[in-house]
Amino acid sequence: MFSRSLLGLLALVGSVAAQTYTNCDPLNKTCPADPALGTEHTWQFNTTLDDKIWNVTNGEITTASNGTMFQIKEKLQSPTIESTFYIFFGIVESHVQMASGAGVVSSVVLESDDLDEIDWEWVGYNTSGVQSNYYGKGNTTSYDRAGYHYVPNAATEFHNYTTHWTHEKLEWWIDGELVRTLLYEDAVDGRNYPQTPSTVRYGIWPGGDPSESTGTIEWAGGEINYTAGPYTMIVEKVRVHDFHTGKSYEYTNHSGDWQSIKVVSGNSTAEVELTKAPAKTLAEKWADLSTGAKIGIYCGAAAFVVGSAGAFVLFFLNQRKKGRLEHALEDTKFSAERTEMQNFQTDWRQSEWKNNGYRPVQ
Ligand SMILES: *[C@@H]1O[C@H](CO)[C@@H](O)[C@H](O)[C@H]1NC(C)=O
Ligand SMILES: *[C@@H]1O[C@H](CO)[C@@H](O)[C@H](O)[C@H]1NC(C)=O
Ligand SMILES: *[C@@H]1O[C@H](CO)[C@@H](O)[C@H](O)[C@H]1NC(C)=O
Ligand SMILES: *[C@@H]1O[C@H](CO)[C@@H](O)[C@H](O)[C@H]1NC(C)=O
Ligand SMILES: *[C@@H]1O[C@H](CO)[C@@H](O)[C@H](O)[C@H]1NC(C)=O
Ligand SMILES: *[C@@H]1O[C@H](CO)[C@@H](O)[C@H](O)[C@H]1NC(C)=O
Ligand SMILES: *[C@@H]1O[C@H](CO)[C@@H](O)[C@H](O)[C@H]1NC(C)=O
Ligand SMILES: *[C@@H]1O[C@H](CO)[C@@H](O)[C@H](O)[C@H]1NC(C)=O
Ligand SMILES: *[C@@H]1O[C@H](CO)[C@@H](O)[C@H](O)[C@H]1NC(C)=O
Ligand SMILES: *[C@@H]1O[C@H](CO)[C@@H](O)[C@H](O)[C@H]1NC(C)=O
Questions:
Q1: The pLDDT value given to residue 174
Q2: Is the entire prediction scored with pTM above 0.85?
């Protein structure tokens, strides 16, 4: 068995290899402002995700009836999505069913531009556990940050993995139970404490691919067997609460301290997108209607049916010259009426329908 610190080292290697990159490091240069979420929102992941909010940054994802599937079907696939928004402290609640299988890693990552990072990671050989982790400014010199937490049936059930993040402390919760707390001062007096605006990323990757380092493959539980796939992580729903409201977040200097982050006021692009009326299905539009409106539509539909029936009768009346309908309607004898009706219908089909088509009202 691995020692805890070796496991930590391996976890570190794996984590850093996964989805931890930045396009512009504000510690070295001046970067564009980070668009904020600036609000709270819950996404049901069993519907096509809005690509203005969730960007597929690698591979393809699939929508299932219970969530979004992240699958490894073939060698080196690692579908990943990333929020286009950033949160500056807040809550990220992810309902996840991990992928099982040696060499397969499922993950939820909060990642900032200067590589502050908060993780949940599921290593597929252990379907009753999850690892928690964090990094400050991409500092990878310590190997004892990973936490190991028991979760029953993590690969066959959705569980609620929540991080609660403030400038003072970081908490990891599983199904409503607090499993780990990191205080600002306990992360090398804050220097390793995640404290800058972060995106939210979901993904799966083959840590056990033969191209990975031996350490990563061992951390991932051995080499992945692609033939035994596909390997599937499912995200059922996600709630994100940004603790700041505003349009964007700016680094005012190169310190990477949370005090240096300026919150630019205004409505965030994400919030505007979220409050924009989504394209609704007919069933959803119906469900949204008031009882009065529904009654109105029922009446309208009834009127339409009555109107159609009326039109139909008019059509028959138009045939009055033939004398048949009138005769049928006036006839008190049911059998005669029916006979006349049948005769009429036969005539009607032959003459009107075939020659002229259906002309309800002339
Ligand atoms: C930013 O600078 C630090 C040292 O100041 C360096 O370690 C890091 O690699 C640099 N990052 C980028 C993205 O250039
Ligand atoms: C989405 O991800 C792709 C691939 O990483 C990237 O090129 C693109 O700029 C991203 N789009 C947004 C809106 O972030
Ligand atoms: C998505 O999940 C929600 C909540 O469980 C459910 O009400 C809804 O019917 C599901 N939608 C689809 C398309 O399966
Ligand atoms: C899986 O991980 C959890 C949390 O570390 C641990 O309690 C459990 O014993 C592990 N199970 C196996 C089979 O390694
Ligand atoms: C990186 O973290 C280690 C402890 O985990 C700490 O000793 C070291 O000072 C940190 N490096 C920087 C540049 O903060
Ligand atoms: C979600 O649905 C998939 C099939 O579409 C199934 O394999 C998986 O077990 C389901 N997960 C839960 C927790 O119901
Ligand atoms: C998920 O866990 C968080 C933290 O305990 C809790 O606040 C939230 O209500 C839970 N979500 C659901 C749907 O139970
Ligand atoms: C990989 O999985 C396939 C299908 O389940 C199985 O037949 C094969 O023996 C496995 N290979 C190894 C090396 O375990
Ligand atoms: C960065 O800005 C913050 C807030 O204005 C300030 O407290 C801090 O001293 C600055 N740090 C550096 C290194 O300039
Ligand atoms: C922000 O949104 C609110 C409500 O949607 C709107 O009333 C307000 O004018 C918007 N503010 C800006 C600066 O666009």
A1: 98
A2: no
CATH number at residue 132: 2.60.120.200
Tokens 């990878």 -> residue: 140
Domain count along the chain: 2
CB-based burial, 167-180: b 16+ in 10 Å, e otherwise: beebbbbbeeeebb
CA distance 251 to 262: 6
Q: Which residue minimizes the CA distance to atom 10 of ligand 10?
A: 267
| Whether residue 160 sits in one domain with residue 45 | yes
Question: What is the overall mean pLDDT for the chain?
Answer: 82
Residues in the chain: 362
- Structure confidence by residue, pLDDT tens digits, 284-308: 656 666 666 666 566 555 555 555 5
Q: Are residues 8 and 155 in the same domain?
A: yes
Which atom, in ligand 10's list, is nearest to the CA of 265? Answer: 13
Q: Which of 241, 275, 309 is the last residue of a domain?
A: 275
Q: Which of 275, 294, 324 is the last residue of a domain?
A: 275
Task: Report the residue among 28, 251, 259 best suited for mutation to probe ligand 9: largest number of ligand atoms under 8 A from its CB.
Answer: 259
Residues 19-60: tens digit of each pLDDT: 567 889 999 999 999 999 999 999 999 999 999 999 999 999
Q: What are the structure tokens assigned to 295, written together?
A: 């009654």
Please name which ligand lies nearest the alpha carbon of 31. Answer: 1
- Hey, whose CA ends up nearest to atom 13 of ligand 6? 157
User: Which pair of structure tokens corresponds to residue 185?
Assistant: 């001062």
Decide: 5 in ligand 5 pocket, CB within 6 A: no
